[in-house]
Amino acid sequence: MHVLLVEDDDELGTRIGRGLTQAGFVVERAANGDDGLELGLQPQIDIIVLDLGLPGMPGLEVLRQLRARGVTTPVLVLTARGTWVDKVSGLNEGADDYLTKPFHLPELIARLNALRRRSWGRASNLLEFQDLSVNLATGEVLLANAPLELTALELRMLKYFMSRVRHVISQNELVEHLYSVDGMRESNTIEVYISRLRRKIGADKIKTLRGLGYRFG
User: Which of 46, 101, 136, 139 could pair covalently with 80 via S-S, beta carbons 3.0-4.6 A apart?
Assistant: First the structure.
């Protein structure tokens, strides 16, 4: 899942970004409201973690403009402000969840997973297809009830495929959701990981549609 973190505190932003990456998220970082708005308009972003106390454009204004421009990406507001008035203001501007600093990173990850399930229309942390299952919370993958070892990128790819069973996914869309802006984004790298993933889960699960992309299932 591609997460945009809009946080001006460099130490906190680095810590959150590192934790989310270790949990299997692809993380983009913006340190002010103007950059946050620009990145938040990008279609590859799946969830936005938005601090309210930002330099430049305030967080609430970023949220207001995103919603005014039709962006429906789930937003979790992250702030040191803890009064009920601040919470109501954020929710009224279109926030989907609210977390007050200080917080524990596992709680943030749990809330992001809950927002992901909600945006995908799911009530469970489990993605299942035929003999394959992925636990979104733990990252555990089972094939025919046996544990399956995947690399971090293979796991991100499998999660994305299994969240869009039978949908046509272009190579460009896959690249945008697997890599950060400054990450390695060569299209031929995707082919390599597709091939490796097929060998592990079964070649018939991922179909190549020439000129279109891929379809899982």
Answer: 101
